[in-house]
Specification:
Helix content: over 70%
Distance between the termini: 33 Å
Largest sheet: none
Structural class: mainly alpha
Radius of gyration: 23 Å
Shape: rod-shaped
Strand content: under 5%
Number of strands: 0
């Protein structure tokens, strides 16, 4: 249950509290990346629910509930492995989606520097600590954060790639930790189930 709650909190933080949250808007967002986060939050909710039933099974010494607990953990483990492969394969797509969002905003700003997109592109630059995507001449006309030296400013497309890589590594670490907890949960549930069965046979 605690692991499930931790996964929910981690997924919600990445979605709404991290740097990637700045790429979410009403019209544009890297759907591929955020879909993975929603799956992560869903897995956390499922783990929390399954953990509750596992506690009930242990408290009542119910072989049926413990068997169901084991089966659910097995499904969660298989889903985690699948999601890990999915995230590894889809990393390039997620990066391309996020970069495309920035390029669209960048192009809109170049067409109309005084429009509403001025505030949006500055928000991106501030979150990513970068400015522009190509050469210094293009950087000079962009709204960049005051603490960034424009000639040395980072390429935003590169920063986007770095941010997604970092976040996916965090997701991978959390996934491995959850998989380990899941394996221990399956082992302990089977041991407890066998112990209950043996105790009843002796009685």
């Amino acid at each position: 249950q605690l692991a499930g709650l931790a996964v929910i909190a981690f997924g919600l933080w990445l979605r709404f509290g991290g740097v990637m949250a700045d790429f979410a808007s009403d019209k544009k967002s890297p759907e591929y990346f955020f879909t993975g986060l929603y799956v992560l939050v869903g897995a956390g909710a499922l783990m929390t629910t399954v953990g509750f039933f596992g506690c009930c099974g242990a408290a009542r010494e119910s072989q049926c509930l413990l068997g169901a607990f084991f089966a659910c953990l097995l499904v969660i483990f298989a889903a985690e492995v699948t999601a890990g492969v999915f995230a590894f394969i889809g990393k390039k797509v997620a990066i391309q989606e996020a970069q495309k969002i920035y390029e669209d905003i960048y192009d809109d700003y170049m067409k109309n520097p005084g429009g509403k997109v001025n505030k949006t592109i500055y928000h991106y630059h501030l979150a990513l600590q970068c400015c522009g995507k190509d050469n210094m001449e293009q950087q000079m006309g962009l709204p960049c954060p005051e603490n960034i030296q424009v000639p040395k400013a980072s390429n935003c497309l590169v920063e986007i790639q770095n941010v997604i890589d970092t976040n996916l590594h965090l997701v991978g670490i959390v996934g491995i930790a959850i998989a380990g907890i899941t394996i221990f949960g399956m082992i302990f549930s089977m041991v407890l189930c066998c112990a209950i069965r043996n105790t009843r046979d002796m009685i």
